[in-house]
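Justification of resources, computational component.

The compute hours requested in this renewal are based largely on the per-chain cost of generating structure records like the one below. Each record pairs the submitted sequence with a full structure-token output. That output is archived, and it is also reused by downstream analysis tasks.
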Amino acid sequence: MRMLLVKLSSLGDVVHALPAVTDAARAHRGLEVHWVVEEAYQAIPALHPAVTRVIPVAIRRWRRSVRGAVAEIRACVQALRATEYELVLDAQGLIKSALVASVCRGPRAGFDRASAREPLASLGHRRGIAVPQRQHAIDRQRALFAGALCYPLPPSAVDYGIARGRDGASGLLFAHGTTWHNKRWPEPFWAELARYALRVGQRVTLPWADAQEHSRAQRIAALAPGARVADRTDLRGIIELLASSAAVVSVDSGIGHLAAALGVPTIALYGPTDAALTGCRGTAVHNVASDFECAPCVERRCGYRGDPVLIDATRVEPACFSRVTPERVWQQLRAAALPT
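The structure output for this chain reads:
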């Protein structure tokens, strides 16, 4: 059976679909998956053994200049229509993913109107799959695949299908970058955690993806002499950095989810977001969540209006991270991933 999967972005969402691909490949021996994904994330589907073809699209880039991208869009449409599929599965549930699926040849399935993030995305599907929204993103993907491919939802643990061997892994990677401003763990906390690690002989590396993250990494390293700011790299380079690390500490970000998928011991930090819905999952994952009075609010902007929360005379922003202290994270990291 040949299936086209439309799961475009973002990094964490792409990672969340991997266990469902593993389930589907086990339920349908010989399943061949082609995956349509944003060009920035194409390295992720390529890691899974059931994915035999990755078709990159550049919707984010094309939006900036549709006129200049006409030839590229036309070539992409031709590539999408070159193969007829037994199933075209829109696993995103957005209007843009539905439009991509509509170009492809084959019967289409996806979230039904009540389940899709954007209900209009369900209109072009031959089959709409009902999947409750208030559950973890990985569980939603697994349920969607099972419904679309007509197999019972397996009770087995999450298997991303991309875990690597851990021989020779060393050092710690601190993934401090995230798109939401209020998901960022305070810089002084990162520096204090780095100092704990450096004092016991651990190597600390700070990756970055853009100029803003680079500046943040440099500020953290300046407060924790000995911490190393990573060289600029692409997603493939990040994969290698993660796979070669003894452990990763990450905010709620795609890199944290990718670390978990690769089987790297991961400590994930949750303040405003809900670990029950988007927490990192894996055999070596520990989510450290805030129990602050308004957490998780699941809002992009902090709405806390109470008294300032101070630690060592320094205001903690967002306030919910005052319950996710460097000491707490360090104890979890030592217990979970570092030799005593």
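The longest helix spans residues 11-27. Residues 215 and 337 are 28 Å apart (CA to CA).
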